[in-house]
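Bumping my old thread because nobody answered last time. Still need a sequence for this structure:
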C-alpha cells in the first residue's frame, strides 16, 4: 500500500513539471503569416464587416485608394488619418488583404464608423443596416473628399509648382467626369 502513495506522488510531481514546461502560453499567439485577420462585430456591424471583406478582395480598388491618398503624404508630413475616409479605409483594407503587417488576429473597424460620423452619416451599431447603403455612403463620401481637393496648384505655391515640373509624361493621366 505504501508503494501506491509513492507512485501517486511521483506521478503528481511529473504532471506538475510537464504543465510548467509545456503548459498554456501566457502571451497571445501572433497571427500566422498569410492568414486573414477577422473583424470585431461591434453590435450589428456585420454588414460593414462583409463590405470591408469584399472590398479588400478588390486589388484595383486598393490601388486606386493608394494613388488617391498619395497626395496626403506629399502635402503634409504626417497626415491625420482620422480625418480622411480614404486613409482610414486604405489602412483597414490593406490589413484585411494581408498587405500591411499586423500582429492582431482581429481588427476593430470602429475607426471607419467614427470617420463616417464626421461625414454626417449617423449610424447606431445596434441597429440593422444595409451593406448596399453603406457602400453608397462610402463611395459618395470618397467623391466628396475628392471634390474638396484643389485641382489646380495655387500660383504662389512655388514649391508645388517646382515639384510638378519633375513629373514625367508617363505619370500624367487624364480624368473625366
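Sorry it took so long. Here it is:
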Amino acid at each position: 500500500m505504501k508503494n501506491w502513495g509513492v507512485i501517486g506522488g511521483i506521478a503528481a510531481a511529473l504532471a506538475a513539471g510537464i504543465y510548467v514546461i509545456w503548459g498554456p502560453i501566457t502571451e497571445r499567439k501572433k497571427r500566422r503569416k498569410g492568414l486573414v485577420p477577422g473583424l470585431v462585430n461591434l453590435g450589428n456591424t456585420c454588414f460593414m464587416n462583409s463590405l470591408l471583406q469584399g472590398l479588400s478582395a478588390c486589388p484595383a480598388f486598393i490601388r486606386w485608394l493608394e494613388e488617391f491618398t498619395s497626395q496626403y503624404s506629399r502635402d503634409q508630413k504626417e497626415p491625420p488619418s482620422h480625418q480622411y475616409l480614404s486613409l482610414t479605409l486604405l489602412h483597414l483594407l490593406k490589413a484585411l488583404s494581408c498587405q500591411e503587417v499586423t500582429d492582431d488576429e482581429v481588427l476593430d473597424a470602429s475607426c471607419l464608423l467614427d470617420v463616417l460620423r464626421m461625414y454626417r452619416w449617423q449610424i447606431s451599431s445596434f441597429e440593422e443596416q444595409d451593406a448596399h447603403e453603406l457602400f453608397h455612403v462610402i463611395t459618395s463620401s470618397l467623391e466628396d473628399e475628392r471634390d474638396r481637393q484643389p485641382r489646380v496648384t495655387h500660383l504662389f505655391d512655388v514649391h508645388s509648382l517646382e515639384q510638378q515640373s519633375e513629373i514625367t509624361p508617363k505619370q500624367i493621366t487624364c480624368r473625366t467626369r
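The chain has a mean pLDDT of 76. Let me know if any region looks off to you.
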